[in-house]
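User: Okay, second chain of the day. Same drill as before: sequence in, structure tokens out.
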Amino acid sequence: MTYRHLRLFLQFLVTERKNGPAARAIKVSCMKGFFTFLYLEEKINHQIADRLFKPNMEQKLPVYLSQEECARFLDVIRDESRHSIRVSTIILVFLYTGIRLTELI
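Assistant: Same drill. Structure tokens below.
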């Protein structure tokens, strides 16, 4: 197996399998890990996957609420919740910081 074989495989993923950049990036990571393992176990002489690079992926723009949408959202929560202070506080922390739920808890 050579570097050329790996490149041909990645080309196959693009042309035949129609894999997107994210799927190809995962496969490159797996190949690098596998060939690093083989090298460390002294099954191969050199790491042939070192020169592989992950494909460039588009950065998705974040989705966020406008100020008016935030205000309407908070008005609904304050009116309909039994625990309005607690819920409003949690929602405000989410809106102002952008943290995930697991980071808040």
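The chain is about 60% helix and 0% strand.

User: Thanks, on to the next one.
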